Amino acid sequence: MVYFTPMTLAQLLALLAFMLHVAGILAAMHAVMNTRTPQGAFAWALGLSLLPYVTLLPYLYLGRSHFQGYVTLHRVHRQRFSQALQRGEHVDAPPSCIRYTALMQMMHGTFHPGQQLKLLVDGEAAFEAIFQAIARAEHCILVQFFIFHADGLGHRMQQALLERAAAGVRVFVLFDGIGSHALPRHYVETLRQGGVAIQPFATQRRPHRFQLNFRNHRKIVVVDGCQGFVGGLNVGDEYLGLKPPLSPWRDTHLQLAGPAVDDLQRSFAVDWHWVTGELPPMLPPRPAQGGAHTLIAVTGPADLQETCSLFFTVAINAARKRLWLSTPYFVPDQAVMTALRLAVMRGVDVRVLLPSRPDHHTVFLASSLHARDAIEAGVRMYRYRPGFMHQKVILIDDDAACVSSMNLDNRSFRLNFEIGALSVDQAFARDVEQMLQEDFSKSTEITREEYRKATYPRKLAMHVARLFDPIL
User: What mean pLDDT, rounded, does the chain reach?
Assistant: First the structure.
């Protein structure tokens, strides 16, 4: 008969440590083979090999990089849309859009002519316009936001959608399962019982408890195929500036009408088809009536190229006189930072507007260190003083501007599903210029002294935070 001696607590701990290190090494091998960037692979591999006790669990949630079913379906839809353009929907871009040819090819899209654009400069203006459009809906409403809250604005949105569903309008709603993790189940069930088709987005149709990495950060509203909305706002009271300490909340949205709305419908349809296996109605957009040319940029980790990072790079390289950027998070990758440096070298007025208050402390610390590097390169950096600045806006020279959901960070570049509208139109660019000038007037320019005067612990925290760039 064989007797086993009971293990002491020390032996159990040693065995557990050994098993964790083995698991960490296996996970490090997975990271080396599958992480999208060399920097990210190195960071994960080092952490998993040396400190599996603190990195293994985060890697299970953040390290997964494949969602093959979505990738396959996404690329099939992209191919179909590209073929549709080649069959006759494609419109040759005017001379003012030629410098964005690379973007059109990368996005498999075109600059649609004749858009009517309205800049919605804050949450109050944006949601007032959205609710007015919803109230007039007669056929179909498509709504997609990263975050829904069951607060004042959330319940107002809920009632607006229920009223139109009761009137016979077909209503479809998508929300991100991670971004809206706090949304109560009864909020969703109330909409479903009222006739609203509502679903959480996930890259896997079957729930995956370890999948937190890929988030659908898009914000889209389309009403009857003719009115579209896109930008940085979500559905929550904080976006109306009603939740201190980040209030007043500074954000921007765009309302558009014209053929480009069809591209917003298509983006929603691809995501809805993945979640449900069905397609929502695709109503014809409003005929061209305005003067703006607009390209809808739909980016995400399922693309063959890193489309969001390339979008910023092409936009920066297109600037000849002026490039003004507004972003809540400034964690540029090497390509974007190089493009900013080159823009300064060719005499472009490059300015970046950042918040003065953090909503995510790690990103804020990393952004502060990147801001110091940008200042050394000649970029003028500013902090918005009144409240939290969340808008994602680009102004290029005197004739082009973009309003989007894209942050200038690696999460938007490589991990999030994003969308934006780049419009070439001098009148619209003047509106954006006026808005940003007002924002800059309420901002303080960052100087080298911000970093120099920081305490050693804060400087150390900045450098440690920057180590997490690949997932920020």
Answer: 88
